[in-house]
Amino acid sequence: MQSRTGQIGSLAARTRWVPERGLAPILTELTSAVDASARLLVLLDYDGTLTSIVNDPRDAWLPREVQALLSRLIRYPRVHVGVISGRALDDLRERVGLAGVIRAGCHGLEIEADGLAFVHPLATAYQEAVRTAGEALRLHAGSIPGIEIESKGLTVALHWRNAEPSAMARVSAAIERVRRLNHLRLLSGRQVAEIIPDVGWAKGESVLWIRDHVFAGGPVEDVVTLYVGDDSTDELAFAKLAAQAITVKVGEQPYTAAAYRLAGVGDVHRLLATLAREIENRWPPPAS
User: Fold this and answer.
1) Widest distance between CA atoms in the chain
2) Where are the domains of the chain?
3) SS3 readout for 116-176
4) 270 within 8 A of 36, measured Cβ to Cβ
5) In this structure, are residues 20 and 262 in contact, taking their beta carbons and an 8 Å threshold?
């Protein structure tokens, strides 16, 4: 499995202390884009960004009022909205079923949008390696109380949110075993370890793929991209998207590679609501 030492060192070099300054500076950039009639790409993580973190990820459902906000944005042809998550695409589709929303599952290894479908070809080729990693995790950690091992097809995850602290030595040992497998990469998230194919592709790369393909009918230089996320997997995207997107970290951790920071999920909802209102006030109503 790929060593992440160089990757972590590179990310650490881009991470700095970012104060939480509220919505104003983010909205200044976004409203400038709206005033210029720019094309907008709004991409958000799911857990911890659009929905609050819960003990059981199966209980994290998108609130109706947030679905309504996304619907207000995607009414406009110049605005595209998407959700990028570590969840499997099928799971994400069940939770964000709005027509017109871009969905990217398994950290962007699988993507669907109107008229577009993508699965990273090498990720498919390494599914057997991912399956082997899942079996190893079940063998060495599956019996630990509070541990959940989730197979997602292209990736596998070990969740320890509900495990006792005393179990962490066994959890770490199980993760260390799968580190040795070839063609795989370890992503550490919020109380979860994600085993993904080592194909040089994650959320940041998928953001750029989405931008280039959704807006393929014109130059991407005038596309303003907003990317919002809360986890360490999003930090890789923030670093990848530097100078190419408005990046926003969600959470109390002040050290980030993002340009801006918001305190919590409620602030993300307020950001979307304000953006929708600014667009509605400035742009003519879309054709029905």
Assistant:
1) 59
2) 20-120+201-282, 123-197
3) EEEECHHHHHCHHHHHHHHHHHHHHHCCCCCCEEEECCCCEEEECCCCCHHHHHHHHHHHH
4) no
5) yes
User: Are residues 208 and 244 in contact, defined by beta-carbon separation less than 8 angstroms?
Assistant: yes
With a CB cutoff of 8 Å and minimum separation 6, the contacts of 48 are 190, 229, 230, 231, 250, 251, 265
Which residue intervals of the chain are DSSP H helices?
5-14, 24-35, 64-74, 89-95, 121-125, 127-141, 168-179, 203-214, 232-240, 265-282
In angstroms, the CA 235 to CA 248 distance is 10
45 is catalytic: yes
Q: Which residues contact 207 (CB under 8 A, 6 or more apart)?
A: 43, 84, 108, 225, 227, 237, 240, 241, 245
Structure token digits, residue 172 = 């770490």
Q: Which amino acid is at 192?
A: V
Going from the C-alpha of 121 to that of each of 10, 24, 38, the distances in angstroms are 27, 41, 33
Give the model's confidence band at 106: pLDDT under 50 very low, under 70 low, under 90 confident, else very high. very high
Write the CATH number of the domain with boundaries 123-197: 3.30.70.1020
What digits encode the pLDDT tens for the residues 207-261?
999 999 999 878 888 899 999 999 999 999 999 999 899 999 999 999 999 999 9
3 state DSSP class of 232? helix
Specify the residue for token string 């990469």: 185
- Specify the pTM: 0.92
Query: Nearest Cα to 40, choosing from 233, 288, 282?
Result: 282
Mean pLDDT score of the chain: 92
Among the listed residues 35, 45, 59, 231, the single catalytic one is 45
CATH H-level, domain 20-120+201-282: superfamily: HAD superfamily/HAD-like (3.40.50.1000)
